[in-house]
C-alpha cells in the first residue's frame, strides 16, 4: 500500500492549524472552524469539482441519506458511507480509494435503531505512528482500525472490537439481548487523549412498545485496548444524584435518556460535556412523574472518572422531543470585561444556552417561567421551564397566531387561520393533547423533530467569539396523543389520533440497513379503504407552508454581548413559491427554504448548502453557498447535484484547500463531493 | 419478423409518450384508486396518510416535494421508489404496485388523470417529465 506523499510529511499532532480536519466538529471544542482562507469571497464562484466518491457500492443497495462529515489527517480522508456503514480511506487530493472496511452483522444490524451510514469516524494516534480509526457499527460495536491499512487492531477489545451492548440494561439492571436488544448510535465517538467516549441511542420515541426501554449510558474506554474506564448513568440509580427526580421509583421502569449526538471536551480542564436526549417517550411522560434528570440536560463530567461536576436541565419533565441535539461549543469569551470559559449549547428551541463551563452557572440569567399545563390523563407537566434572557431566540420557536401565518395574500392568510383553528395553539412548551376529530386535532408546535438547530449543529469563530447557526423555523408539527391499540404497549399514550388507523413511527432509515431481510415480492399488505377526502386542518396553504417566511435562517450570535449580530434567510426561495400561480407578478423577498443543515466556518466565510433543489436562477441544482462572516451577505455559490445531507468540512493538502460535502436525496444516491479552486486562473 | 414488429411497437409507444409531462393525463383514476390502498398500507406510516411527510420521511406532495423533483422524470421517481422503498422492505413491491402508487401520488398532487395507465417500464416513464407548473402550450 502506498500512502499519498503528503501523508508522509508535516509534523505535530493533527490539527486544523496544519490544514487537517481531525474531528467531526473540526476540533474537540465543537467549533467546525478552520483558519484556511485560500477559498474566499473573491473566488468561491470559481470552485470546481476536484473529485467525487459515490457510496452506492458500500452496501447491497444505494443509500439516499448520506450524513457523514469526513476527517482528513495528513492527506488522507476517512469517513463512513453506504447502507452497510462501511469505512473508507481516500486520498484527499484525488478521492482515490486507499482501503475499505466493512463488517457484516446480519440481523443485529438489520433491526438496529440507528441505521444507514452514520455521521463518520474518529481518529486516535499515539503520535509515534500508531494511528487508528475509531467508529461504531450499525449493530453498536466499537471498532478500531489501523488508519494505514484498515485492518482491525488485534489488541483492541476482541479482534478489534468492543461489544457496546454489553452493559446496556432495562428495568433495574437486566442486560439487553446482544442481538435483538435496542441500542445503536449515529454519532462519532469522542476521542480525547487515550480515551474513547461513546453515547447511545434508541428507536424513535413516538410510538414506543414499552416505557421500560433500554437505559441510556455514556461510557469511556481505553483507546489502547478497549477496556471500560467509566460509565455515566444518564438515568441516575438509587443513591446517585438526581434519582429522586424520577418520582415513585420510575427510574426503574423508564429508559432512553441517551446521548445520541456529538459530545465535546475541554482537554485542559479535563471536563466532558454531554448533551442528553429525552426519556421514554418523546411526547408522553405519564409513567415518569418528576423532572427526570438527566433527561434533556447538559451534563458536565470529569474526563478521568465520569463523575458529575454540574448539570443544567434545559427542559424539565421532557415531553416535546427537545433532545439536546448537537455538540456543545466551548468558547472563551469576554463579558463586561470579564474573561469566561463558556460552553454554548445550540438547540431545537433555537435558544443558545450559555454557561460558565467550569461552574455551570448561566452567563446570562436563565429564568424559570410559568408554562401551560397538560390535560392529558396522568401527565404531570413541570409548572415552569427555563428561558434564557440572553441571547434572544435565534429563530421562531412557536407559532404566534395570526402574526406568524403565511401572508403572501389575504386569501392565504385566511386559509391558514382556518386551518390552524382546528389545533390548540400557544407559546413555547405548549403540551401535547389527545387529538379529537370533533374538536382540536392536536397541539400545534414548531420544530420538535426538525426545528431550530438539529444534529448538524452550529459553528464558532474563536477569534471573534461569534456562533454561527442555521435554524429551521417552519417545521410545523401538530402533536396529538392516543391510546395505543390493545396489546401494543404498556405506555398509556402514544403519538397518533384515536380516529385514525394506528401507525408505528419508525426511525430514519429503519429497515434499510444492508442486512435487512429482502422478502420475496408478495401481495401488498391487505388493502384498507383509501381516505375519502383531503383531511381537514391541513398543514399547507395552496401547497405552501402554513407559516410565513423566512422558512429557515442563518444567525451570527455574539457571545461577548449575548446578541444576534446578523440574521439572514437560509438558501434561496423555493421554486414552489417563485412559480406559484397566486403569487405571479408579486415581488417577494428571499424566503429562504426549510431544512436543517450544518456549516463550516473559515477565516472569512460561513459555508453551507441548500436543502432543496431550485431551478429558476440557475440550472436545476442545490447550491453550496458562502456567506461573508461579518455581515451574512452571500458572496458565492456553486452547484451541487443534490441537497446537502451531511455537514461540510474543509482541509488543505499540498497547499491546496478543499471543501467536502455529503449530498443525497430525491433521485440522487449518496455522494461525497470535493471542491477546489482551478489549477490555473 | 416478430422482433421487428415488437421493436416497432416499442418505438411507437416510445414516441407517443415522448413529449409528455405529468399534466398530460398520464395515469387513470382507477389506477390511482388501487394505488391509494397500496399507499395507505405500505407508505403512509412514514410519509403520512395525506402524503405530507413525517419525522424521517419527506412529503410526497406540495411545494417542497415538487421543488426537489420538478425537471426530473417519473422514471427517476419510479426508480427511487423501486430501489429503496418501502424503507423497511426495499424492493418488496412489484413494478405494477409501484406504478399504482405513483398514480396515487400524481392524483393527490392534483395532476389530471387520463385514459391510459402509467407504464411499469422505467424507460417509458423516463419520457414523462415532472413539472411543478403546467407548461403553457
Q: Overview of this structure, please?
A:
The complex is a heterodimer of chains A (about 675) and B (about 140). By secondary structure, chain A is an all-beta fold. Chain A has one domain: Methanol Dehydrogenase, Chain A (8 Propeller). Chain A contains three helices and 41 strands. In chain A, the strands form twelve sheets. Chain A has a four-stranded antiparallel β-sheet, with no helix packed on it. In chain A, strands 2-3-4-5 form a four-stranded antiparallel β-sheet, with no helix packed on it. In chain A, strand 6 (about 120-125) and strand 7 form a beta hairpin. The radius of gyration of chain A is 24 Å and the shape is globular. With about 140 residues, chain B is mainly α. Chain B has one domain (about 20-125): Orthogonal Bundle (Cytochrome Bc1 Complex, Chain D, domain 2), CATH 1.10.760. Chain B is about 50% helix and about 0% strand. Chain B has seven helices and no strands. Chain B has helices at about 1-15, 30-40, 45, 65-70, 75-85, 95-110, 120-125. In chain B, helix 2 (about 30-40) packs across helix 6 (about 95-110). The longest helix of chain B has 16 residues, at about 1-15. The termini of chain B are far apart. At the A-B interface, strand 32 and helix 3 of A face helix 2, helix 3, helix 4 and helix 5 of B.
Summarize the helices and strands and which ones pair or pack.
The complex is a heterodimer of chains A (681) and B (137).
Chain A lengths: L47 E7 L16 E3 L2 E6 L4 E6 L5 E5 L5 H4 L11 E4 L5 E6 L4 E6 L14 E3 L5 E2 L3 E2 L14 E3 L2 E4 L18 E6 L5 E6 L30 E3 L4 E5 L21 E6 L5 E6 L15 E7 L2 E8 L7 E4 L9 E5 L13 E5 L21 H11 L12 E2 L8 E4 L12 E3 L4 E7 L3 E7 L11 E2 L44 E2 L2 E2 L6 E7 L4 E7 L5 H4 L21 E2 L3 E5 L12 E7 L5 E7 L8 E5 L2 E10 L2 E9 L5
Parallel strand pairs in A: 25-29
Antiparallel strand pairs in A: 1-41, 2-3, 3-4, 4-5, 6-7, 7-8, 8-9, 10-11, 12-13, 13-14, 14-15, 16-17, 17-18, 18-19, 20-21, 21-22, 23-24, 26-29, 27-28, 28-33, 29-30, 31-32, 33-34, 35-36, 36-37, 37-38, 39-40, 40-41
Chain B lengths: L1 H16 L11 H14 L1 H4 L15 H7 L4 H11 L10 H14 L13 H4 L12
Helix pairs in contact in B: 2-6, 5-6
